[in-house]
Amino acid sequence: MTQVKAKKYLGQHFLKDMEVARRIAESLTLDGRTSVLEIGPGMGVLTQFLLQNPLIDLTAVELDGESVTYLHQHYPDLHVIEADFLKMDLKSYFPGKFCVIGNFPYNISSQIFFKMLENKDSIPCLAGMIQKEVAERIAAPAGSKTYGILSVLMQAYYKIEYLFTVHEHVFDPPPKVKSAVIRFTRNEVSQIDCNDQLFKTVVKTAFNQRRKTLRNSLKPLVEKDHPMYADPLFDLRPERLDVAAFIDLTNRVEKALNNH
């Protein structure tokens, strides 16, 4: 087998620029020897650089059977799991901490990050390539037009760094959008100071109608005539609130719900 054919339904765009692959492989923040999971290695362009790093104990997860065959032929020592990352029970494969890396399929990148959040205490670092617009959105500060649900949820538990932009011509086939490499490093927050599940609900509800003020967007959670809404905070749109403000807002909503 000389080459794997990119499959549109899997969102495959194979990186062919070795320098970009090397830079991605070097973007992981490692603290000593570390278990690393590569998502969607394809033909192993990134994999080869990861295998060269003596600090990395590498496992790859690949859904495409043709790619799995290619990897077995070209990287016989690589541990490859043929599975859908989104359906994996990560704790059964990695009982301890592990980092994540990959050229992530753009059609599931947000789902990858939500799964990462579910396993945040096991994943101290993630580095990877995603669609440029999504990377900008996640890294955006409060007040930015691109700041949204993923920005708040990820920034609550991770330091986000937009590392560099990648142009379309370094892929085969080239995507219709620019790409970017982003890095997440776990912060020191073990538990945010509010109900974590309600926090997610408040953030998602607020941004579901992001052009409206919080007074209007949060009505599905707390009835519109509740005295809570007298506070000027609720005159704001959701993109004005940083993580700390959303934590405070969640506590207010919880108090209102409990009183009701």
Classified by CATH, the class of the largest domain is Alpha Beta
Largest sheet: 7 strands, mixed
- Rg over alpha carbons: 20 Å
The name CATH uses for the topology of the largest domain is Rossmann fold
- The number of helical segments is 10
Major sheet: arrangement of strands: 4-3-2-5-6-9-7
Helix share of residues?
Answer: 25-40%
H/E element string? EHEHEHEHEHEHHEEEHHH
Q: Could you name the CATH homologous superfamily of the largest domain?
A: Vaccinia Virus protein VP39
Q: Which secondary-structure class do the elements indicate? A: alpha/beta
Strand content: 15-25%
Gross morphology is: elongated
CATH-derived architecture of the largest domain: 3-Layer(aba) Sandwich
Fold and architecture overview:
- This protein folds into two domains: 8-186, Vaccinia Virus protein VP39 (Rossmann fold, 3-Layer(aba) Sandwich); 196-259, Helicase, Ruva Protein, domain 3.
- The radius of gyration is 20 Å and the shape is elongated.
- The longest helix is centred in the C-terminal third of the chain and has 17 residues, at 243-259.
- The protein has a seven-stranded mixed sheet with strand order 4-3-2-5-6-9-7.
- Helix 8 (196-208) crosses helix 10.
- With 260 residues, the protein is of the alpha/beta class.
- It is built from ten helices and nine strands.
